[in-house]
Amino acid sequence: MRRVLDVLAVDHEEVIVPEAKADRDALDSITGQRGVPVLVSDDLPEGYLHDSSEISAYLKEHYN
């Protein structure tokens, strides 16, 4: 995801989450899941995307 964000010059904030999924309570409270990558944005209908192919498609559609 970082490469797609960089290539498209998308202004973003990268948040480093704990390596252990069990320690990702903050991520779980926002998205309902503990996996990464995740794109969180007020512009998204659910507030987030958590599938890398969906994130790439969204970024290419909106920032290309």
TrEMBL record:
Residue span(s) of domain GST N-terminal: 1-64
One Pfam family matching this protein: GST_N_3
InterPro entries, sorted: Glutathione_S-Trfase_N (IPR004045), Thioredoxin-like_sf (IPR036249)
Name recorded for this polypeptide: Glutaredoxin
Organism this protein belongs to: Halonotius pteroides
